[in-house]
Design goal:
alpha/beta, two-stranded antiparallel ribbon
Length: 184
């Protein structure tokens, strides 16, 4: 320790996420989590800020598990248009963000992970964004199953040399009595 510490990995999102680490976005159902993730993908694709934080410029993969393909593309386009990007930034975002729609073809993560790694390996992504994870998780109340689930995200990130970012909704019902970190 002391002076012999290896250097930290570079930041992917200033003060929030380092390259190769995981990030979860959680919130209530219909709480705009997908819109926040799309904005994050655009920030990576253009090198712009996200929620006031500098982001590394690079390619990312958005794995859409919920919307049909056409609706997903329209949502991305609506957010791109709303971002008031320059023509150059719009082109950068369009070229640096890949969308993989799996609605109707979702499998458990242990089956999807190797396919995801094969698909993403050749693209040098800085991040893989998975939206939402409840479609992949199985029994969310089983601590052992969720540990395996988290380990699979680590495996994906380590295999690809990128960060894995995912979103999850709060459990149903009133959340006011729970601590913020216990709501997902």
């Amino acid at each position: 320790l002391g002076a012999n510490l290896p250097p930290l990995k570079p930041e992917l999102i200033q003060g929030l996420l380092r390259e190769g680490h995981k990030l979860i976005i959680s919130g209530p159902s219909k709480g705009a989590k997908s819109f926040a993730l799309i904005q994050l993908c655009i920030a990576f694709g253009t090198g712009r800020q996200w929620m006031g934080r500098d982001c590394k410029h690079g390619r990312c993969l958005y794995v859409n598990l919920e919307l049909d393909e056409v609706s997903g593309y329209h949502r991305f386009n609506d957010v791109l248009t709303d971002q008031k990007l320059t023509d150059s930034e719009f082109t950068q975002a369009a070229n640096n963000v890949d969308i993989w729609t799996l609605r109707g073809h979702v499998q458990q993560l242990e089956i999807l992970a190797p396919k995801l790694i094969r698909r993403a390996k050749r693209n040098d992504y800085v991040a893989v964004v998975i939206d939402p994870i409840y479609k992949l998780a199985g029994n969310e109340n089983d601590a052992e199953a969720m540990t395996k689930f988290g380990n699979l995200f680590d495996h994906v990130g380590m295999s690809l040399g990128c960060s894995v970012i995912y979103c999850h909704h709060h459990s149903k019902g009133s959340q006011g009595h729970k601590r913020a970190e216990d709501r997902s």
